[in-house]
Amino acid sequence: MEKAITELLKTTEDEMRPEYDFRGAVRGKYYKPLHEGYTVHVHRADGTTIVQHFQLEDGAVLLEPDVREYFPDSEAVNKALRCLIPLLPQKA
Fold first, then answer.
1. C-beta of residue 42 within 8 angstroms of C-beta of residue 52
2. 45 contacts 17 by C-beta, under 8 angstroms
3. Looking at the predicted structure, is the pLDDT value of residue 55 above 80?
């Protein structure tokens, strides 16, 4: 009996719910705008709208998910890059 319940739960957890519809979805739709900056419009209940523009600060770097697994924070990234600096040709 317990095995049957486990199997039932496993099959229902692995399946997409019918109310989810991803037709017309675009993978990575917001990836590029994040680099370029983006504008957020917040519509308030009182009828006013707040507009905020966000852009990465100079020097900010976005890590891809596979890289982020190895370098979870700025300290880890900087430590790794400092190890590479001696291998680079000298600056002019």
1. yes
2. no
3. yes
